[in-house]
Amino acid sequence: MNRQALSTEDRAARKRLAELAAGRGFSIHQDAVANLFIRRDGSNPSLPPVLIGSHLDSQPTGGRFDGALGTLSAFEVLEALEDAGVITERAVEVVSWTNEEGSRFSPGCMGSMAFVDVGDIAGWQDIRGVEGARFGDELAATLNALPEARVQPIGHSISAFVEVHIEQGPVLERAGVPIGIVTGVQGTKWLEITFTGEAAHAGTTPLEFRKDPLAAAITAIARLQQAVMPADPLARLTVGRMTVEPSSVNVIPSKVTFTIDIRHPEEDVLASIEARVIAECRASAEDHALDAHIEKRFDMAPGTFDAAIVDVIENACESLDIPRMKLVSGAFHDALFVSRVAPAAMIFVPCRDGISHNESEFVSSENIETGAKVLLQTALSLAQG
Ligand code: HGY
Ligand code: MN
Ligand code: MN
Ligand code: MN
């Protein structure tokens, strides 16, 4: 499904969630970057709320569960508390973070970055989406699409944050364990590289006259693919997007732009891979007599979650007699940014064959239910003062 951030489809999903919330008498609000909050009051309004949730935006060919599972499981927790007439001391709030994926507009995690004051809402306004839309216009349309969700100051105080998410990898399924308690998240860097050469005739231009940005990109990428992941099983290097101009069968391209997504659990290794990518790209550009422009599009340092929240999730699993295992997330998540302002951790559920960012993404109803039960028990523990 294609529900990219701040799109018509994303606005429709937010609208539906807001309607469900209104139907249960929960209050809703949004902030300046359209993070959407749904609140069920507690008995002591002076206490900062417990925050649970995830994101609704998706990849161009994303699955139904990445993000949405965590957001709807969190909403289900509010409904379960309401149905059971449970009064928690702290309010419990559900959040849907804006633009976690970063696919249409980079960086990713814009909502949670802005919430913890490491974003740049003003600086993001003129960012263009891959299809050309302006971020500021799409953000305004998204805010205006939910007039019932008043815009309130960003970054309100919370006591803790817990996010349920599909693992997006094979570990839990292979281990036959229904719950992952996420202790940390590996680091991520996104680079966008543009090589500019000279369009020329494919048939008449000999090698020594060519300024071919695609040849340079292929050379650099081949060298990196042969060097980085084979040398380090923990390293991840992905070229996810490439545009070629003018993209004609018989024209030597004038310009090529491509993205490189780098991941590693160790910050210094992540930095050394980034340096290697930059060096290879610059060397290949020089070899092909080209201009290279390299931009950092996302930079999320690896991090660990709060041990106390990990313990609360562990205790929740224990009380529910649910097998669990601890693991570090290979995917980045809003929870890691949120952990800068409040104790946070995550609950993973297995997804079939570990496949995600793919429309065949699948989670069994049993695993969905188990994840929501652990989230409910965790939220209850955190919300009782
Ligand atoms: O790319 C990620 O790690 C996340 O799934 N958006
Ligand atoms: Mn996600
Ligand atoms: Mn994702
Ligand atoms: Mn996430």
Automatic annotation (TrEMBL):
Binding residue positions for Zn(2+) 2: 66, 101, 357
Query: Which Pfam families does the UniProt entry name for this protein?
Result: M20_dimer, Peptidase_M20
What this protein needs as a cofactor is: Zn(2+)
Gene3D superfamilies documented for this protein: 3.30.70.360, Zn peptidases
Q: Does the keyword Hydrolase apply?
A: yes
Q: Which residues of this UniProt protein bind Zn(2+) 1?
A: 55, 66, 165
List the keywords (alphabetical): Hydrolase, Metal-binding, Zinc
EC identifiers of the protein? 3.5.1.87
Q: What is written in the cofactor note of this entry?
A: Binds 2 Zn(2+) ions per subunit.
> GO terms for molecular function, please?
hydrolase activity, acting on carbon-nitrogen (but not peptide) bonds, in linear amidines; metal ion binding; N-carbamoyl-L-amino-acid hydrolase activity
Record has Disulfide bond as a keyword: no
Indicate the segments forming the Peptidase M20 dimerisation domain, all copies.
184-286
Q: Which InterPro entries match?
A: Amidase_Cbmase (IPR010158), Bact_exopeptidase_dim_dom (IPR036264), Peptidase_M20 (IPR002933), Peptidase_M20_dimer (IPR011650)
Top-level taxon of the source organism: Bacteria
Top enzyme class: hydrolase
**Name by which UniProt lists this protein:** N-carbamoyl-L-amino-acid hydrolase
What's the source species for this entry?
Rhizobium lusitanum
Upper lineage: Bacteria, Pseudomonadati, Pseudomonadota, Alphaproteobacteria, Hyphomicrobiales
